[in-house]
């Protein structure tokens, strides 16, 4: 069962004399929903994600998960970053077991680790050293480690941005599918419009100075999403327009606009660059 999240009037400044980086954020995320956060660089996406993870307390307001105020990290709320954060002196199996060991869930440890490796397609790499794996495989190990503890919530901070287009696409589809199947709530920070539309049931666009929620869009397309479909293309256009509007109301393009499909590529490759 996923976690229900309430972002309850959050404002934040990093020190008393600093500018506010977040202002009066309000959002309800029902249990099991996938939400993508997009917005210009520096609008506070990662700051907000850290608050959801219990790694940072807001100056005003609070986050509630399953109605309880978040004051510290929790084993069932997992955060995945751009770099997978694996321990190079442990092999794949040992890295996956770590979350279970930290949380004292050591019953059936071997079977649980094997099940997770199977889920992410790495059963044949169980004994491999993590530095011998590709970037995508390492992210899969991190994913298996996160999923092993049966999280209610997974927080993703641009987790696939360092990966090649094909690996990224596969992982986007796999993580979405796993979250849907297991009812896990997902909150994803991304600069990639297609990633937001591939993974999010809802996309929230933030503006900056200070960071606020400017727009939101429900993505009512079935999983797995097909970026080649007409419906997807229409949503991409609409989301891009909202993003531009959030940055420059007059319509001038942002310097740091999220990654848009490259129109110079043939259509098949164009959606994921
Ligand atoms: N520990 C900190 N101390 C002071 N200021 C910070 C700290 N962390 C972030 N900031 C500032 O808060 C603002 C929001 O940063 P944050 O990293 O949350 O933005 P972001 O939207 O995730 O950006 P990006 O898309 O570039 O990763 C920025 O102006 C940043 O400089």
TrEMBL record:
Q: Which stretches of sequence are listed as region Disordered?
A: 247-273
Record-linked Pfam families: ABC_tran
Tell me the keywords, alphabetical order. Answer: ATP-binding, Nucleotide-binding, Transport
Q: Can you provide one Gene Ontology molecular function annotated for this UniProt record? A: ATP binding
Q: Which residues form a coiled coil?
A: none
SUPFAM superfamilies on file: P-loop containing nucleoside triphosphate hydrolases (SSF52540)
Any idea where the ABC transporter domain is?
5-233
Please state which protein family the record places this protein in: Belongs to the ABC transporter superfamily.
User: What protein does this entry describe?
Assistant: NitT/TauT family transport system ATP-binding protein
Q: What's the source species for this entry?
A: Alkalispirillum mobile
């Amino acid at each position: 069962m996923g976690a229900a999240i309430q972002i309850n009037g959050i404002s934040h400044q990093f020190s008393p004399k600093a500018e506010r980086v977040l202002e009066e954020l309000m959002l309800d995320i029902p249990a099991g929903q996938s939400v993508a956060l997009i917005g210009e660089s520096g609008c506070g996406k990662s700051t907000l994600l850290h608050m959801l993870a219990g790694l940072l307390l807001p100056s005003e307001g609070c986050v509630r998960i399953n109605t309880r105020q978040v004051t510290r990290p929790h084993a069932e709320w997992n955060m995945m970053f751009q770099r997978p954060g694996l321990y190079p002196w442990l092999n794949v199996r040992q890295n996956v077991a770590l979350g279970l060991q930290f949380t004292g869930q050591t019953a059936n440890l071997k079977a649980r680790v094997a099940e997770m490796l199977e889920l992410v397609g790495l059963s044949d790499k169980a004994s491999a050293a993590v530095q011998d794996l590709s970037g995508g495989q390492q992210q899969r190990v991190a994913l298996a480690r996160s999923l092993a503890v049966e999280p209610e919530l997974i927080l993703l901070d641009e987790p696939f941005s360092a990966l090649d287009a094909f690996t990224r696409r596969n992982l986007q589809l796999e993580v979405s599918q796993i979250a849907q199947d297991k009812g896990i709530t997902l909150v994803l920070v991304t600069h990639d419009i297609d990633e937001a539309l591939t993974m999010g049931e809802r996309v929230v666009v933030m503006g900056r100075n200070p960071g606020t929620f400017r727009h939101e869009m429900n993505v009512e397309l079935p999983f797995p999403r097909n970026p080649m479909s007409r419906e997807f293309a229409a949503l991409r256009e609409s989301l891009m327009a909202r993003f531009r509007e959030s940055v420059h109301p007059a319509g001038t393009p942002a310097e740091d606009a999220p990654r848009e499909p490259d129109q110079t590529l043939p259509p098949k490759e164009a959606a994921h660059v």
